[in-house]
Amino acid sequence: MEHTHHEVMEKGYSGENLDDDGREKRTGTMITAIAHIITAVIGSGVLSLAWAVAQLGWVAGPVALMAFSVVTYITSALLADCYRSPDPITGNRNYTYMDVVMANLGGMKVKLCALAQYSTLVGSTIGFTITASISMVAVMRSNCFHKNGHQVECNTSNNPFIITFACIQILVSQIPNFHKLSWLSIFAAVMSFVYASIGVGLSMAKVAEKGHHARTSLTGVTVGIDVSGQEKMWRTFQALGNIAFAYSFSAVLIEIQDTLKSSPPENKVMKKASLIGVSTTTLFYMLCGCFGYAAFGNDAPGNFLTGFGFYEPFWLIDLANICIALHLIGSCRVFTQPIFGFVEDLCAQQWPESRFIKNEYVVKIPFLGPFYLNFFRLVWRTTYMILATLIAMVFPFFNDFVGLVGAASFWPLTVYFPIETYIAQTKIKKYSSRWMWLKILSFACCIVSIVAIAGSIRGLAVHLKTYQQFKLKN
């Protein structure tokens, strides 16, 4: 694979500063990989889990959370083995998810993978922008409720906050590549633990309150009391999409693995990091989903930190929502990097002589050291964030949007391509018991994705009927 314009800076490096592929030596460790995974996984998805468990109930809710967790870990381990081809330890590196598919499957499947991956990453960018703005609005509303009482409407437009988040992202997006993002991911991972812990703590306090009687059941929202039979079915489908979104990190797994040092072998480190990352997030998801449901019952809000099931202590709710917004700065950056890298590499190959695309200018920043400025990177990344922001302003529906992105991406990226590339690379015999089990898993997850997509599209359609452009009431 050709070197991109990111590697132009590396030409003056001596051999000991280069990896086996001639690129700058990778310095990532299991700790930085776990930070990237947690930053990618514990995101806005955690906020909708109380609502998701409320739709499914005490039995199906926790079972669904565990099932998605187990599937995500199994398939992430399969994908980690495909980072190098044909041998998982000594083979050639695959720098991106698409490279993995190209090395093992080829043909039309490469284009389908690109479509699935980049659609998911664009959708996640928009979802994070919506969520960050909702959290910033929640801080304003929390202070308004504290000052004026809980009966006041305290409506605030999302749009100024969507624009604020976009401006921050435009600045942060100028960090050249994944290898420079470890500090941002570690910071974002800490933020995610803080707000998830606050959410769990507030839910536990509400459950422990004297006279607290939230109506819960083994099967979730009750037909005939809370919803109609048809609405129950659609909500169940949408809840599955929300849980799928909460576990999505396969789209950036290979890019995270490409930051790791080559010794010990990257696939072994990535499997351990995936196990720790997914186990940690599952624990938080169980706590947030189950305690959130216990606190709010069948009336659980779509976003349990901004839906105002909690009003006090207002400063703690403010802190949680500020942490969400700060975390999403990191999450959004992790999810946009593969898109940025793909377009920039493509343009560098298409126009190899263009100085606008290739030239890097060193800008010395006090206390931070040299910063490499590239004008194409500046223009393209800024344009991308502006377009994502405009879409977020048009469709600011949290639950429906995260459900749709999660449902659409879960089967192709988390299940189908990891299984197919692993079968191809390890040459598993057709119709062997291992081959059959992997295919059954893929088929079952495909069905789940289809019904979850249907539920989320239906939710979006219902909300669009009643939504007035740029006059959203929170």
Pick out its properties.
globular, 14 helices, 474 residues, two-stranded antiparallel ribbon, mainly alpha, Amino acid/polyamine transporter I, two-stranded antiparallel sheet
Textual characterization of the structure:
The strands form two sheets. A two-stranded antiparallel sheet has the order 1-2. With 474 residues, it is mainly α. It is globular. The longest helix is centred in the N-terminal third of the chain and has 41 residues, at 108-148. The chain has a single domain (27-466), classed as Amino acid/polyamine transporter I. The chain has helices at residues 30-41, 49-80, 97-104, 108-148, 159-172, 182-208, 229-246, 253-257, 266-296, 314-350, 355-358, 375-394, 398-426, 433-466, and strands spanning 84-85, 92-93, 361-365, 369-373. The chain contains 14 helices and four strands.
Total separate domains: 1
* Strand line-up across the major sheet: 1-2
Tally the helices: 14
- Helix fraction by DSSP (H/I, runs of at least 4): 55-70%
CATH architecture field: Up-down Bundle
How many strands, which pairing sense, and closed or not: the largest β-sheet?
Answer: 2 strands, antiparallel
Secondary structure class reads mainly alpha
CATH superfamily: Amino acid/polyamine transporter I
Computed over alpha carbons, the radius of gyration is 22 Å
Average of pLDDT: 84
Query: What is the assembly state of the chains in this entry?
Result: single chain
Identify low-pLDDT runs.
Answer: 1-13, 470-474
Overall 3D geometry?
Answer: globular
Say what the CATH topology is.
Amino acid/polyamine transporter I
Beginning-to-end CA distance, first to last residue = 49 Å
Strand-and-helix sequence, N→C? HHEEHHHHHHHHHEEHHH
CATH class type: Mainly Alpha
Tell how many strands the DSSP assignment holds: 4
